[in-house]
């Protein structure tokens, strides 16, 4: 029996998603849940636009040569779904990084192009043991909000400062203001020399201090190609969730022969910063569902408002009201069924819809609506034009 605040229970109760044994660790998104999934994607895309990222898309399957070059074939093999494509060994991608390397290598950037920021909402697959799978928190198929910054080493500090500053505001839009930072250093199994790791760890820790980040040291927890800063959020129960990350990589540019042309015409290796905001879109959605107990903020709700005519006599006006809200970008639906008004309101509350627009005889005569709030049950009558403007403003994205 699942707890009523468990995201898996909420996924069923709110008709968001399900997972079944024929596709372990993979999500069947229902219409309401896929709306939430898309809203999180859109939030990432808005942030990418603000931060001047170029969005790309890379293949799902890559041959062994690329995974050997990245180090994943040797260091991450047990978590990869391998297959044979004609006479070539290949794998379904567990990360997006090597695909981004292929794009930048073709671009052959100059120092004038740096920092070069590219991002991808890329679906990845990892062969996680069945016993570790856990709803949206641990999946085999999920979407990473990956970004990579190609820059000269002297630009690392400014890029980390920029990322950390934007991240605080981004998380605040979702209602998370308590953030802890961890600094993960070189693991026992890694690529690159000690000298390269010394340089990378010094640069990233210095950048963190410049960003005003107080971090706890996490020895041996870095990626096999570089150290990383991990951003941990706390939910309403005080639980910690590692979400965002930024990692400094001086190894993969060498392994993939990535270069840029400097001011003198010489070819040099860039530094690479791997960054993510959510880490996993699905996991972040699970965190949000449990943090808010399913009653998501207005801007994040699958349906933000339901228009409810009291009787069939108000149906025509209710349909007009619905269109007015929808034209202003409000995710609104109509409930013109045969249930009583109180029953319709109860159904809306059970579905965690934040606002109900009640249309009775008086509202139809006055061309108004009565807006009823999910939280507290307060209600106000507003002229239709006023209601549409106010509700549209309240429904605008916060992240």
UniProtKB/TrEMBL annotation:
The yes or no answer to whether the keyword Ligase is present is yes
Q: Which UniProt keywords apply?
A: Aminoacyl-tRNA synthetase, ATP-binding, Cytoplasm, Ligase, Nucleotide-binding, Protein biosynthesis
Show the GO MF annotations.
Answer: threonine-tRNA ligase activity
Q: List residues traversing the bilayer.
A: none
What SUPFAM superfamilies is this protein classified in?
Class II aaRS ABD-related, Class II aaRS and biotin synthetases
Transcription regulation keyword on record = no
Q: Which Pfam families does this entry report, sorted A to Z? A: HGTP_anticodon, tRNA-synt_2b
Q: Which reaction does it catalyse?
A: tRNA(Thr) + L-threonine + ATP = L-threonyl-tRNA(Thr) + AMP + diphosphate + H(+)
Enzyme Commission no: 6.1.1.3
Q: CDD domains under this entry?
A: ThrRS_core
Q: Residue ranges of the Aminoacyl-transfer RNA synthetases class-II family profile domain?
A: 6-297
The entry assigns this protein to a family as follows: Belongs to the class-II aminoacyl-tRNA synthetase family.
The protein here is known as Threonine--tRNA ligase
What species is this protein from?
Answer: Sorangium atrum
């Amino acid at each position: 029996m699942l707890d009523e605040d468990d995201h898996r229970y909420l996924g069923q109760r709110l008709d968001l998603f399900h997972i079944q044994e024929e596709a372990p660790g993979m999500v069947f998104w229902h219409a309401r849940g896929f709306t939430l999934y898309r809203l999180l994607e859109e939030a990432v895309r808005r942030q990418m636009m603000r931060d001047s990222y170029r969005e790309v898309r890379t293949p799902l399957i890559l041959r062994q040569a690329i995974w050997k070059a990245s180090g994943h074939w040797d260091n991450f093999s047990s978590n990869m779904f391998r297959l044979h494509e004609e006479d070539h060994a290949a794998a379904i991608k567990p990360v997006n990084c090597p695909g981004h390397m292929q794009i930048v290598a073709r671009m052959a950037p100059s120092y004038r192009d740096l920092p070069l920021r590219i991002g991808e909402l890329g679906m990845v697959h990892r062969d996680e043991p069945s016993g570790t799978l856990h709803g949206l928190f641990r999946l085999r198929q999920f979407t990473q909000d990956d970004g990579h910054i190609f820059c000269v080493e002297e630009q690392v500090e400014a890029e980390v400062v920029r990322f950390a500053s934007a991240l605080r505001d981004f998380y605040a839009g979702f209602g998370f203001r308590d953030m802890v930072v961890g600094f993960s250093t070189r693991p026992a199994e890694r690529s690159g020399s000690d000298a390269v790791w010394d340089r990378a760890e010094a640069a990233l820790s210095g950048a963190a201090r410049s960003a005003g980040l107080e971090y706890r040291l996490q020895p041996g927890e870095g990626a096999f190609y570089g150290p990383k800063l991990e951003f941990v959020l706390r939910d309403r129960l005080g639980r910690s969730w590692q979400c965002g990350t930024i990692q400094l990589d001086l190894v993969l540019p060498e392994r993939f022969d990535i270069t840029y042309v400097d001011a003198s015409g010489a070819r040099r290796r860039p530094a690479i910063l791997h960054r993510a905001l959510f880490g996993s879109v699905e996991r972040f959605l699970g965190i949000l569902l449990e943090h808010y107990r399913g009653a998501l903020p207005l801007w994040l709700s699958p349906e933000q408002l339901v228009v409810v005519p009291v009787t069939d006599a108000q149906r025509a006006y209710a349909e007009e009201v619905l269109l007015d809200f929808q034209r202003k970008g409000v995710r609104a639906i109509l409930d013109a069924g045969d249930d009583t008004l109180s029953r319709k309101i109860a159904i809306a509350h059970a579905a965690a819809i934040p606002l109900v627009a009640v249309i009775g005889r008086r509202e139809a005569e006055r061309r108004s609506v009565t807006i009823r709030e999910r939280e507290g049950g307060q209600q106000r009558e507003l002229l239709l034009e006023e209601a549409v403007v106010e509700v549209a403003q309240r429904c605008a994205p916060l992240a």
